[in-house]
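dude i think i finally got it to work??
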Amino acid sequence: MRGGAGYLRVLAATLLAVTAFAACFPWDRSEPTPTPVPATAAPAAASPAPTPTSAQSTGSESVTPGPTPSPRPTAIIVSRTPTKPLPTVPPGVLSQGDARLGQELFISKGCIACHQVKGEGGTTGPALDGIGNRARRPMLAGSLENTPENKWRWITNPQLVKPGSAMSPQPLSPEEAAHLVAYLETLR
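look at this
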């Protein structure tokens, strides 16, 4: 388990580095990606040096052409292609969720260390006020519709839903995750 978490941290750091690297290029993102130039391409031929005119100095000065413009770099596009399907919610498990037990788990499992509710808790993760109101918070993790099923999926394996997320998979039983979802549904 510990080795997997280390791998995910390295993967997340690599994705962040690639994203930061790609953001450094100056071209307009709406234009098509430039065609890569083969490594064996010969540099453009320099134009011949101009011949001095009578108005110019004819001393030992030499006129050197300016630098040949280098080709623009190609873009690095990183996209999330799911390699595994999202976790399946066991039938009937969400109907067994108890909001009171979920609130206790929120504290005992350490969720409150990263997430705030009603101004109390950590700030590493987002505040969860309003997470039970789909009109106020229509999306989870920027990509999932805010439903109890998707909350359960996010809680049980956030890295599968959004690779590189700061939230690591939580050691919860399906029933404990259902209790947490029931609690989150009360946060309107």
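The longest helix spans residues 2-23.
im so relieved honestly
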